[in-house]
Amino acid sequence: MAAETDKPEKMMDVSVWRGGPDGGAFESFKAPQQESQTILDVVTYIQQNEDPSLAYRFACRVGMCGSCAMMVNGQPRWTCRTHVQKVLKDNKLVIAPLRNLPVIRDLATDMTVFFDKWTAAEASFTPTKTRHDPMAPINPETPERLAASEAIECINCAVCYAACDAVAGNEDYLGPAALNRAWTLVNDVRDGGHESRMDAVSAAGGCHNCHSMGNCAQFCPNELNPTASIAGLKRATVKAALGLRK
Amino acid sequence: MISPHRSHPLWFAFLLHRVSGLALALFLPLHFYVLAMALTSPEALDGFLSWTDMTIVKLAEYGLVFLLAAHFFGGLRLLALEFLPWSPRQKTLAAGAVALAFFVSTTFFLSAV
Ligand code: SF4
Ligand code: SF4
Ligand code: FES
User: Fold this and answer.
1) A235 touches chain B (CB under 8 A)
2) Measuring from atom 2 of ligand 1, which residue has the nearest CA?
3) Reported pTM
4) Mutate to test the pocket of ligand 1, among A211, A219, A220 (most ligand atoms within 8 A of CB)
5) Residue B23: which CATH number?
6) Which domains does chain A have, with CATH numbers?
7) From CA B45, how far away is CA A123, in angstroms rounded?
């Protein structure tokens, strides 16, 4: 707000993609620059001051829920934790819906496929015990647990999925997030779904589609490395094919 | 223009691997065809070989050897990435593969001229 300082507001140019499943176009807005401002702040400013019909999605605003990701100047970003200062180029922002996902309206994408692929990758825990058994003791220092711990902080934001060119080239590819999650379970000693998960991740749309170019790891806001996880899966599927233990 | 979501070293390593692979796939049939001339028509082969003395052809060979070496060392990096325990030094390894490819192809070029 201008009242906080005596300086006149510095405006920036913001192009926002507007449209729906059948296409759309960029629309230009002006928004004032503020200190510590995030991309989500800019989108909210436009929605509250310029065009209340602008559709976008967010929930937590603190990088927990994974619902606010968009393309910002051509790169996928979690908008609630991306500072304008970090990405502003020539005083301009270009904000578009996340790549590789169908658009519902404006900046909101339909993430159904993304989550369906988690299911397809069998990226969910298969229990081997019941609630009546004692809690499983887990040693945090074993190589398996260390590998799993490296990869567990995913917030399902689909930034990696939007960055991935293999997803862009093959709509059946399960993508970095689902495979990264599958890898954490491969390393979970409590999990009982190993064999069918190996089948799921080595099927047609599975880990062998990955070209290891690392766009996913480059942009994951939680600094996870799906490229490394997928390489782990590739090794595991080769071992499984050779009849070796995981 | 390279899209902003691709402008990082490992994507360029991917691009180099793809381009060198395609170039080699196009070059190899030609290469075998010329080699086969040694059996089918030696005179034509001699004619062709004198043509390869031209500087421009030498430069093209330099490029070709570079692509071959880049594909070889880059391929070793990918094999290590997929079959050995993960190393976080992928950017360094990719840069090392390119450096080795330069070294090999320049050595080849210098001994060819
Ligand atoms: S490393 Fe694999 S999963 Fe990651 S962006 Fe590249 S192709 Fe996609
Ligand atoms: S792996 Fe990273 S980029 Fe991909 S969904 Fe999880 S948190 Fe987001
Ligand atoms: S709004 Fe929850 S992660 Fe950005």
Assistant:
1) yes
2) A210
3) 0.90
4) A211
5) 1.20.1300.10
6) 2-109 (3.10.20.30), 112-241 (1.10.1060.10)
7) 59
